[in-house]
Amino acid sequence: MIEKIKTLARQYAPAFIEIRRHLHANPELSYQEFETSKFVQSKLKKFEIPFEIKATTGVVGLIKGKNADSRVIALRADMDALPILEENDISYKSKNKGVMHACGHDVHTTCLLGAAKILNELKNEWEGTIKLIFQPGEEKNPGGASYMIKEGVLENPQPSAIFAMHVHTGMPVGKLSFRSGKVMASADEIYMTVKGKGGHAASPHLCVDPILIASHLIISLQQVVSRNSNPFNPSVLSITSFQGGATTNVIPNEVRLMGTFRAMNEEWRAEAHKLIKKNAAALVKSMGGEIDLHIDKGYPAVINNERLNEAAKLAAVNYFGEENISETELRMGAEDFGYYAQQIPACFYRVGVMNIEKGIISGVHTPTFNIDENAIEVGMGMMAWLGSCIQI
Known about the structure:
Blueprint: H1 2-25, H2 34-47, E1 51-54, E2 58-64, E3 72-78, H3 105-121, E4 129-135, H4 144-150, E5 161-172, E6 176-178, E7 181-184, E8 186-195, E9 199-200, H5 210-226, E10 235-243, E11 250-251, E12 254-263, H6 266-286, E13 290-296, E14 302-304, H7 306-320, E15 325-327, H8 337-343, E16 346-354, H9 374-389
Parallel strand pairs: 3-4, 3-5, 5-16, 6-15
Antiparallel strand pairs: 1-2, 2-4, 6-16, 7-14, 8-12, 8-13, 9-11, 10-12
Helix pairs in contact: 1-3, 1-9, 2-3, 3-9, 5-6, 7-9
């Protein structure tokens, strides 16, 4: 089976590289993937794979092999792009100015389409059912995965496991990496408005200075992690925006702050939210101000099922060789794949796309992100092999 998948992946790779280039040139923002969705639907129709629509732009396909009820495996890809102006000088540069596939979702979608074609052509040689999940909105709260789950993507039939790949810009093409347990962090957005009393900067004694209060607040909030979190429990609190005042001689009435909180433990995550609110309210009040504070709860942490991850890693070793498989590093970035991982056994793995000799070294979420397109053959082949061989 491995050789048949490898042969088809190699045979179809050029066509799917063109598909990836089409997607890269036509990116769409989160929850606006209307043309991308239509494109995916057109390919599934061409492959004669039945599908349904969920969450407006999400597409869910179904491939039935032998003994279709014996097992159900889900394979997931995200479709949305980022609000970034592309700087690459390539023939398939984004045609949608200010929007770019800078996180590799064009690659993920292409590889899942490629795996779908391979699995469908070989459906008489593997057992069970494969559910293909093309989801919207991975880059924006509350996450397209949450909408897909609410609309029943993990039901009728219910998968016993789910896999997703992600490009890895720091790993050479042809390599893959896996990790059991904690993989990526939860991500919450923090919005604060510190209110004081503005006035002339030369008369601060007649004011309640929100800039001074906000400055103390930023320093104080660092203690939430440094003095309350277990040092062995990864956690990050970063204030990333400070907006207030417009000139040199006026103390403003208010200051707006924004930031992010990341964690890998749900109990600590909930406790940290309480501490942020409590500490912020107390400090601001003590300095004579008021605060409006909102925490927009985002994606949960991505936790890979240990047994499933080990099975996937072994499958990858059998497909690519042990020398090409490594362990994924722990990351404080976030992925809405965590929603799926809360529901069923999940495995989120990485596919190398870097090629130093070709100058393909830019990270994700940058205007010069690109991939060595040999990763398309690797990605589609691996997804097809996992779908066909994993037993849960």
